[in-house]
Design a protein that fits this description.
The protein is an alpha/beta fold. 42% of the residues lie in helices and 12% in strands. The protein has one domain: TIM Barrel (Alpha-Beta Barrel), CATH 3.20.20.70.
């Protein structure tokens, strides 16, 4: 029989530990976020629906994005125990420079639409964190403005080739003069993907006050206040005009982009050159032979061709094909530091994350981006410790494998039909 008693005050004191009080409601919300998924929920509540969907959505039925996330979730780690993991080194050389983490922040278009601090906030966080940040040609902050905001950091520039090649030449020159060391040429966007969420929401760039957006704006007054009381929201690196994202892309991007343009850009750019949007072993070999220093395996975050190849599944055969000829990077669907660790174990030099930090930006501006990087950093460190690995450079294929849909395993050292042997 249980005997009950009245607890002493001294016994209650350790149990009564209220959370630290702060007047900064945004800081309090961000502190409670323990995953990128938590930041996504905060972003969904704080941003207008059209803005959130522009970030969160993908093309057509969004199969490409869903499959990418499912493959990262299918990773099975193989840990080693009885290893001293009291200290881990998460740094790595990426494209000729040191990064404190094995990932970079990916280029995202029109970032100030998510939060008025936009690309400046992201660049500042990346500089403090010691990781590269990639400004998009479709960015809403100038090349020079990002370099200033992220002073002391490492800057990459993502380039689309326009019908007017003189525009590209000018942007490349400006990036070089501003100290950018790496150029990412995106090649998977000859035309705009069919992003149904944007069409349903009537999204335009810049956002327009239609009846739909006005009603939605009533639930997000802070976002509209920031939009209307700060500098106009425009594409800072080009004069693209307005319209839907699909219309803007089709009006200015060049669908006649070929391998000759990669060769031309290699001759015009003195820094590192990465081709972004590679989705086959054959194309990886072609761009490496054309002089690319790196290939970024990417299906544009699932925002272009739906049911495209899953980038994570391409790492192993592309690394086998290229060997030391070019560095292999990967993006799409990465929402956890464990995904980054898996990418490196499978053979990638580094990963790029986009939506993850945009959720943070929508949730809390620069502080939200910082929280996203903190979460990913902690997940990378913890995953490495639990794997028994103390250096990113020590990650190997035996540490991670992709489980097949039938529950079996595919080990990265096993050759798949139609893939080249490791060089």
């Amino acid at each position: 029989m249980v005997r009950r008693r009245i607890p002493r005050p001294s016994e209650l004191a350790p149990l009564l530990r209220p959370a630290p009080f702060t007047l900064d409601r945004t800081a309090a919300r961000l502190a409670r976020a323990s995953s990128i998924g938590d930041l996504r929920e905060l972003a969904r509540r704080r941003a207008p629906r059209a803005v959130f969907d522009y970030t969160d959505g993908a093309a057509e039925d969004e199969v490409s994005l869903r499959r990418a996330r499912e493959v990262w979730a299918s990773v099975e780690f193989s840990p080693t125990v009885l290893t001293d993991v009291s200290r881990v080194d998460t740094g790595r050389e990426i494209l000729g420079g040191r990064s404190s983490l094995p990932f970079a922040l990916a280029p995202t278009g029109f970032t100030r639409m998510m939060h008025t601090e936009g690309e400046r906030a992201v660049a500042a966080v990346a500089a403090r964190a010691g990781i590269p940040y990639t400004l998009s040609t479709m960015g809403s902050t100038t090349i020079e403005g990002v370099a200033e905001a992220g002073r002391g950091g490492r800057h990459w520039f993502q380039l689309y080739l326009w019908r007017d090649r003189s525009v590209a030449h000018e942007l490349v020159s400006r990036a070089q003069e501003a100290g950018y060391d790496t150029l990412l040429l995106t090649v998977d966007t000859p035309v705009g993907g069919n992003r149904r969420r944007d069409a349903r929401n009537g999204l335009s760039i810049p956002p327009a006050l239609s009846l739909r957006t006005f009603v939605d704006g009533a639930r997000h007054p802070r976002w509209w206040f920031d939009l209307l009381t700060t500098e106009p929201l425009t594409f800072e690196s080009l004069a693209a005009g307005g319209g839907s994202p699909y219309e803007v892309i089709n009006r200015v991007f060049d669908p006649a982009l070929t391998l000759d343009d990669v060769t031309w850009l290699r001759g015009a750019w003195p820094g590192k050159l990465v081709v972004k949007g590679v989705q086959s072993v054959t194309d990886a070999r072609r761009v490496a032979d054309a002089g690319a220093d790196g290939v970024l395996l990417s299906n544009h975050g699932g925002r272009q061709l739906d049911r495209a190849p899953v980038p994570a599944e391409l790492i192993e055969p592309v690394v086998q094909e290229l060997g030391d000829d070019a560095e292999v990077l990967v993006d799409t669907g990465i929402t956890h530091g464990g995904d980054v660790v898996a990418a490196v174990a499978l053979g990638a030099r580094a990963a790029l994350v986009g939506r993850a930090y945009l959720y943070g930006l929508m949730a809390g501006g620069e502080a939200g981006v910082s929280r996203a990087v903190e979460i990913l950093r902690a997940e990378v460190e913890r995953t490495m410790q639990l794997l028994g690995v103390t250096r990113v450079d020590d990650l190997r294929p035996e540490h991670a494998r992709l489980r097949s849909a039938t529950g079996g395993h595919h080990h990265p050292n096993e050759r798949r039909p139609g893939t080249a042997p490791r060089r």
